[in-house]
Amino acid sequence: MGFVFVLLIGVFAAVPALADPIVGLPAVDDNCIPFGCAYAGLYQQVYSSDAFSGPIVIKDIEFFNTEFDNFATAMNSGTWTISLSTTTAGPASLGSTFASNIGAGNTQVFSGNLSQPWAFGDTLTISLMTPFLYNPSLNNNLLLTVDAAGVTEPDGNPIFFDRGGSSDIGRVWQFSTASTGTVNMVDADFGLVTGFDGVPPSVPEPGSWLLLGTGLLGLGILIVRRKFAIQ
């Protein structure tokens, strides 16, 4: 039994640990779009594949409020529909047409209200209804698409989330005025600092299977030897 326990420990030790990346650091300013103010419309943010150390099954995404205290006591109310996909567009090459930026594997991962009590220093954690597998080694970047609708500020105080000034992020968003109508604005090296909580893909690497097979073979030989030693 002890041998089996040591064997299993060896198998899991052979699977590299995955650090949950926070992309866009360092935080250099703040911004309330698309979650912290009464923003209605589409929003996209791209994350460079270079910011991820390996494949990750994303289960939660996080946004941080540590740079500016606007004395908000409640997160906005509304409906946010969030999708993740890969994209060939990068932080400096997002297009102004939202649909053209979306690449393979586009998946709706969340839809609902994010309303909750709020205090400065809190983290907005969005638990995905559908986890998303992202593999940065395929040379495609990660794209976040947000469709915000019916958003209101319950206490009238927008929440300003940490904004990064990093070459790992870029964004496109909608700006509307009475004179210009709606214009899609592209900002390179600009966007919200974002945390990605997840786990490695569940299938062990080939080396782990080899270790497991070798260990089981050794266990079988040990059992056979003990059996004949007893007889």
Number of strands: 13
Distance, first to last CA: 21 Å
Order of helices and strands: HEEEEEHEEEEEEEEH
Contiguous helical run count: 3
Q: Which strands sit side by side, in order, in the main sheet?
A: 6-5-8-3-10-11
Strand content is 35-45%
Quickly give the structural class: alpha+beta
Shape: globular
Integer-rounded radius of gyration: 23 Å
For the report, how would you describe the main beta sheet?
6 strands, antiparallel
Helix content: 10-25%
Q: Name the average pLDDT.
A: 86
Flag low-confidence runs.
1-15, 208-212
Notable characteristics:
3 helices; alpha+beta; 13 strands; six-stranded antiparallel sheet
Description:
- The protein has three helices and 13 strands; from the N terminus they run H-E-E-E-E-E-H-E-E-E-E-E-E-E-E-H.
- With about 230 residues, it is α+β, with helices and mostly antiparallel strands.
Map the helices and strands.
Elements: H1 2-14, E1 22-23, E2 27-31, E3 41-47, E4 56-64, E5 77-87, H2 98-101, E6 107-112, E7 123-134, E8 141-152, E9 161-164, E10 169-177, E11 181-188, E12 191-192, E13 194-199, H3 206-230
Helix pairs in contact: 1-3
